[in-house]
């Protein structure tokens, strides 16, 4: 009971001191987060984008949840047009998502509308970012195996370190 009385007294004291205090206006982040749009990076509703125009109908999607699957990605991007491919890139060993993927549309216009509609939106609880996919860079071929003769029976297996002197 004594604690309750102390709290009421403290509340009255602070209430008198803070009665003229106005709370600060909500931040832009808070407004964008709580708006009807699910984007946290809303540009104020101007609707214009400073992103360069697309030249390919393939999009790179980053920021994916580790639990996002190809089907969830397809479901999220299908309202924007005819989706030809939706692929989440997975780790070869674990089979889990690496956090990015690609979507490909039939036309550049559909890809552009998907980019505008899905960039900085939530998917599986994570904010995703949609950018134009870059063409794959060609890899150099692996070097040919060396033409050294195969090791003899004496050389096969473990080898001793032939370093002479102290290395430190």
Give an overview in words.
With 168 residues, the chain is of the alpha+beta class. The protein has a domain at 51-132: RRM (RNA recognition motif) domain (Alpha-Beta Plaits, 2-Layer Sandwich), CATH 3.30.70.330. Helix content is 25%, strand content 19%. The protein has four helices and five strands. It has helices spanning 2-17, 28-34, 70-77, 108-118, and strands at 58-62, 83-90, 97-105, 121-123, 126-132. A five-stranded antiparallel beta sheet has the order 2-3-1-5-4, with helices on one face. The protein is elongated, with a radius of gyration of 29 Å.
- Report the CATH superfamily of the domain at 51-132: RRM (RNA recognition motif) domain
Low-confidence segments, given as residue ranges, are 27-40, 43-48
Distance between the termini: 72 Å
- Strand proportion, as a percent range, falls in 15-25%
Structural class: alpha+beta
Total strands: the figure is 5
Query: Which architecture of the domain at 51-132 does the CATH hierarchy give at level 2?
Result: 2-Layer Sandwich
Largest sheet: 5 strands, antiparallel
What do the pLDDT scores average to? 76
Reading side by side through the largest sheet, how are the strands ordered? 2-3-1-5-4
């Amino acid at each position: 009971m004594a604690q309750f009385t102390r709290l009421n007294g403290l509340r009255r004291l602070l209430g008198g001191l803070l009665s003229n205090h106005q709370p600060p206006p909500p931040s832009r982040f808070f407004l964008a987060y709580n708006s009807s749009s699910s984007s946290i990076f809303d540009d104020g509703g101007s609707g214009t984008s400073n992103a360069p125009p697309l030249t390919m109908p393939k999009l790179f999607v980053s920021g994916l949840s580790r639990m996002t699957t190809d089907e969830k990605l397809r479901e999220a991007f299908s309202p924007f047009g005819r989706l030809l491919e939706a692929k989440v890139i997975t780790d070869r060993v674990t089979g889990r998502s690496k956090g990015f993927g690609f979507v490909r549309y039939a036309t550049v216009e559909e890809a552009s509308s998907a980019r505008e509609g899905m960039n900085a939106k939530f998917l599986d609880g994570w904010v995703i970012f949609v950018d134009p996919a870059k063409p794959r860079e060609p890899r150099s071929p692996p070097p040919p195996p060396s033409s050294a003769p195969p090791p003899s029976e004496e050389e096969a297996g473990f080898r001793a370190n032939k370093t002479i002197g102290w290395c430190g």
